[in-house]
Amino acid sequence: PTSLPEYFVVPSSLADQDLKLYSYSFIGRRMPLWSWNHPNGSALVRMANIKDVLQQRRIDQRICNAITRSHPLRSDVYKSDLDKCLPNIQEIQAAYNKLKQLCVNDPFDDTEEKWLSSLENTRWLEYIR
Questions:
Q1: Residues of the binding site for substrate
Q2: Last residue within a domain, chosen from 80, 102, 119
Q3: Which of 13, 69, 102, 105 has the most CB atoms lying inside 10 A of its own CB?
Q4: Do 100 and 69 have their domain in common?
Q5: Model pTM?
Q6: To the nearest whole number, what is the mean pLDDT of the chain?
Q7: Residue 43: helix, strand or coil by DSSP?
């Protein structure tokens, strides 16, 4: 897909042919992307779901093992399913629209307590936290 980056960070213990083969298993062929690196060696890697549930565990384990072997401290991979713990883009957009409505259309028409309650109900602060 054209939205994928030109270059990928790939653990040295993961063969290019394996990576190419695994790419067909990910939804939209979206391979794990190294998005951010902390000075202590921790990395944030974004990964799409794997199409075939039966293959998911094997592919996921192979990639995680390669990342662990490539880590300077051999730290284990910590995985978090962001679909379950973060709002989706539609929820963020709805919260933003509620915040905008609150700030632009009805700025401080109510008591401070009611306004703060309305602000909390937008969930915007929760999402950006």
A1: 88-89
A2: 80
A3: 102
A4: no
A5: 0.55
A6: 81
A7: strand
